[in-house]
Amino acid sequence: MAVSIDLGRKDNGQPALLDLEELLATRLLVQGNSGCGKSHLLRRLLERSAPFVQQAIIDPEGDFVSLADRFGHLVIDVAEQTEQGLVLAGERVRQHRVSVVLNLEGVDIEGQMRRAAAFLDGIFSVERTYWTPMLVVVDEAQLFAPSGGVEVAEEARRASLGAMTDLMCRGRKRGLAGVIATQRLAKLAKNVAAEASNFLMGRTFLDIDMARAADLLGMERRQAEMFRDLERGRFMALGPALARRPVAVRIGEVETESRGAGPGLMPLPETRPEEARALILQAPPPEMPRPRRAPPVPPPDILAQLAAARPAAPAQLPPASAEEEAERRRAQLAVLRSILADPAAAFRPVQSLYQDFQLRCRIEMLPGRPPDLAAFRRLLAVVLAGVTDALEERAEWQAALDYAARLPEDRQGAYLLLARAALEDEPCPSDLAIARVLGSISRGRGRSALEFIEKQGLIACRPDAAGRRVVTLIGPGWETAPGDPEAAVA
C-alpha cells in the first residue's frame, strides 16, 4: 500500500508529500537551530503517519506526550523504570505493536543516554518474528550520538552511541526506520548522520553547519548562505522519499499542542516597591537543626587490590622473527577483512571496530599482543583501500606506506587507495569510493580529501581527453588509469 504524508506546501503551492514506504527504507535527518521548527516538523510527520505505521519517540524534553491523548500512544516515564525494565518494554512494544513515547524529562543527560540505549536495544534485539515496520523518531539526537567527548561516563556514551549506530546502520533489515533531528550537524556523530538518505534542513547560522548542510543536499558551497535566511517552519528537502532535487517546503499545521512551545510576551504585574521588598527580601523560615551524619565509609580501592593480587610477570619472550611478524600481520589483516565484509562496518566508529578486532583476535588465538590503536588505524586504512596480501608483498608497496605516513591518519586510506589503483593499473577511484574509505558517503568528502593530498605535493590530478580523471603519485611516479570521478561504488 503506497502512503504519502502531506508535510505542507512547496513554494509553488503544490503539496509537499513524503513517501512513507520509501522513508521506512531510507531514513531521515532533520537539522536546524533551536526555534526553526524541528519539533513542529516531527509532530506533523508523526500525526500524519500515526494511522499507518507503529511509532516510537525518544523524547528528551517531554514535548510529544500530548500525542497520547489524540492518537493513543503509550507514554513511558523513564524516571520510574530500570534499564532492564526498559529493555523488556522495548521488546514488548514490538511484540504487541504499540506506539510509544519514551519521556526522558526530569532525568540528567547520563541517565537519558543509558535509558534511551536500553530501550533501543530492546526494540532492536527482538526476535525476527516481530520485525514489523516501525518509525523510530529521536529528537535532539546529538545528545544520544555525540560527535566528540561529553561530560558523562564513557560506558554511558558508548552504550548510547552504539544503540544509535545500530538503529541507523542496521535497523532497516529489522523494520526500524530512524528519523533523527539535531540542532547542529557538527555535534552529531558522522557515522549516524551518514546513514540517512532523506534530509530536511532548516535555518542555521554557523559556517561549518551551513557547509555540511549544503554538501548533503548536493548544493554549491556559495549557496550555503541561504540557510541563514530560512524562516521558521521552512526547510530545504531532498531524498528519495521527498524530492529528487532540493526544494523548499513550508510545514503545515498540527493537531496536537507541544509543551515546549516558546512563551509569549506578557505585561509585568503592578507591584509597589514596598510590596516587592516584602515579597522578595522577607526573612527565611527558621530551620530545624539537622543531625550530624557520620562520613560514609570510602569504597575499597579496587585497583590496589588487583595490583596486590597480580601474578608474577612471566619471563620475557624472545623477539619474534621477521617471518613471524609478517605472518602475524597477514593473520590480523584477515581478521579485519572479515569484520569489514559487512558493508555497514566501514561507517562504524574506530573504537567499536577496534574492540571487535581485539575480541576476534582472541577467538582466533593469534600469537602476540594485538596492535595498539594507532597501529590498528594503519591496518584499517590498508583494508579499506582494498589492499591484498599479494600487493603487500610487492617491493613497491613499502614506498606507498612511507608516503602515506606523511599524511594525517584520517587521509592515509585515501592515498593508499590511489596507490593500489596505480600499481594494479586500475581506473582512478571515484569521489564516492574515496569517501567510503574515509567512512563517509559524501562525494564532497572524497573531493576534499583528494584536494588536500594534492596540496601536500604527493599527487597531481589531470583530466584525459574524455574528461576522466588521472592521478599521478609524485615521488614513486605511478599513475592510475583514467576513471570517472562521478562513478558509483561497485
Automatic annotation (TrEMBL):
One of its GO terms (molecular function) is ATP binding. Keywords: ATP-binding, Nucleotide-binding. Residues 24-214 form the AAA+ ATPase domain. The keyword Nucleotide-binding applies. SUPFAM superfamilies: P-loop containing nucleoside triphosphate hydrolases. InterPro entries: AAA+_ATPase (IPR003593), ATPase_Atu1862_pred (IPR014588), HerA-like (IPR008571), HerA_central (IPR002789), P-loop_NTPase (IPR027417). Pfam families: DUF87 (PF01935). Coiled coil: none annotated. This is ATP-binding protein. It comes from Roseicella aerolata. The lineage of its organism: Bacteria, Pseudomonadati, Pseudomonadota, Alphaproteobacteria, Acetobacterales.
